[in-house]
């Protein structure tokens, strides 16, 4: 009994302590996320439609449709490099497919885009033994002279190491960067600036260790740019295996001679951003953008980068149209062109529509892979974040409730999110994204049909809710 009384008092004490703590927690949460009851209720009212959209993709009429559409697309066109006729044909195809799905409001806007054509290219180790070095020229690289360049190579692990060398040790050589992969954001500088840094020391060419965490002897391309007033030298990516081999050979004191041959050309062509609108019912001037880029590098078939992102953004229109769901605000799908050569399509759109940014309520892009959806990469105001968190609660049945507030949601929408316009990218289980990125490995086999259904369902339902809720996602505070 006494024991029980003690227990009761203890239990009561714990209860009081707990109550105080939970009040504090609630207060803290309220302070952090002071959403009005109206807003919470309004968002909660979308539970049913969220589940309906998920079911429509996962076990309804659209099951498998995203993968099927993507596979037909990439099997027909393969990769879609900026400036190519093939990219333009693939854009025409998407317009036709959109109309076939009874969506009439599809149009394009022209953009001048770069046409960087790699042409014939190779790298050959000539000394201390002859070996082909699988390579991919980097975007905007200049060509070598017609006969190629034959030069001694010097291998470095970092820019700091390169800078510490006397110019005479680098001059007239090919600089090979055997940099370690830390993460994409950190390591990509060797791809972006490797040529210019080598040229400043008098090098005649540069080769970088491909920017990827994983290699099966695969080179990975990507864009680079030359600094002003620095000699433009040819630059390409080689495999991890070969960059490491060249480093070991140098460590053993071997003389390394490499031949580089590249014949890239650069010109300009006309391409198009593709825009599909579901006009809003009561606030049609307000716009929610949902997007991905239709162009790709000229290797693999661009199923992952960014076929998946483009197709889930396209499927949002198909699904809402079929389900007869029309949000209050205009939901605009954009398939950007020429993202890979420097966000050319989105920059042109930004310029052309600069007077309409006031009406942009929320901007979305999926360009970081379409693997298992986890939630949203969010950028924007604190109050907006509270609303997004509340919306994400509706996706607990597919475990896509996470919010990540670090990093940019998407490259093409960066011009807006950096300006404080709230936006989101697909947060997904993308741990293998850079295994395939910009390589021959970016093929349809990377994509999974069931996962695409889940991601398309999430992307559709999320964009619908944001376009339909009573209050705008606020830009501040
Ligand atoms: Zn991309």
- The general outline is elongated
* CATH third-tier fold name of the largest domain: Aminopeptidase
| Domain module count | 2
Specify the CATH homologous superfamily of the largest domain: Zn peptidases
Q: What is the strand tally?
A: 16
Classification by helices and strands: alpha/beta
Strand content: 15-25%
The helical percent reads 25-40%
Kindly provide the radius of gyration, computed on alpha-carbon positions and rounded to a whole number of angstroms: 26 Å
Helix segment tally: 15
CA-CA gap between termini: 57 Å
List low-confidence stretches.
1-31
Largest sheet: 8 strands, mixed
Report the CATH architecture of the largest domain.
3-Layer(aba) Sandwich
CATH top level assignment of the largest domain: Alpha Beta
Bound molecules: zinc ion
Strands across the major sheet, in which order?
A: 1-10-12-11-13-16-14-15
Mean pLDDT over the full residue set: 94
